[in-house]
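Lab manual, section 2.4: Encoding a predicted structure.

Procedure: take the sequence of the chain (315 residues), apply the prediction step described in section 2.3, and record the output as structure tokens. A sample record is shown.
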Amino acid sequence: MLMTKEAVRPLLEVSGLSVSFTQYTGGLRQKTIQAIVDLSVSVRPGEMLAIVGGSGSGKSLLAHAILGILPGNACVDGRMIYAGEHLTPVRQATLRGREIALIPQSVNFLDPLMRVGAQVRSSSLNGNGAAVQREIFSRYHLAAGTEQLFPFQLSGGMARRVLVATAAAGNARLIIADEPTPGLHSAIVRETLAHLRELSTAGRAVMLITHDITAALETADRIAVFYAGSTVETAPVSDFCGEGELLRHPYSKALWRALPQNGFRPLSGSQPSVDDLPQGCLFAPRCPFASPDCAAVQPELRPLRGGETRCHHAA
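Recorded output:
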């Protein structure tokens, strides 16, 4: 019997993740900034999960927490389970770049002093890096001879393809793509996302972090919506339709309705600063349905209608 994606055990489960930073404000005085309050996501083999939300909502910090590359002044709490085992710092160091690969935001992550073919070959762990590199470059339409180029000799689209190729060349089971398409032509965006989709179809788990909801909806299986360092909703892509009536959280609905093709209806107010988070529901100051309960207590993330939401009033 064939198993659906929903029946497959998650490769990565993050629950109740919080990240804070201790900073000196002058002399020996310190303050703590709560950058992530309560993030929970999961992704399965063969699935692409897109994570959307405004700047400062915790998307990239989540990626860095999973990889174990946060700065030394970070304090991390919560649970991260990878392949059924806790993702401890020692295990993160072992898996990073091997089973868990990052496709970063900036092409500047490519080594400027190393030819791109050698960079891709170095990611292959199967003993035949040259053959792997040639096959992947051909699949990603990187012409013969590209492997001899340095990063500064590549166009933006070529550099993006090399970054994806570097992740594809390894044996990574989980690929985290952190804003892989900023500032690119729409055709290159579609091409890059199609390559990521190929990786998930081949059985890898792909986590796509993006501001581009429209592109995510064309590629992903599920969407996780972040707001002010918390997960407010996770929903199947099919729920993003019509007037957003299938969505569960007021912020998700507002994001959907703010898209140009859905009327471009803006939401008043702004996401709170990490220095000034409200009590209770973080979205309550902007929510048209907020009640006294919302201002008093942060809602728990709960299952609802085939997804999850963090809202007292969602039904």
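Check your result against the sample. The CA atoms of residues 30 and 180 lie 35 Å apart.
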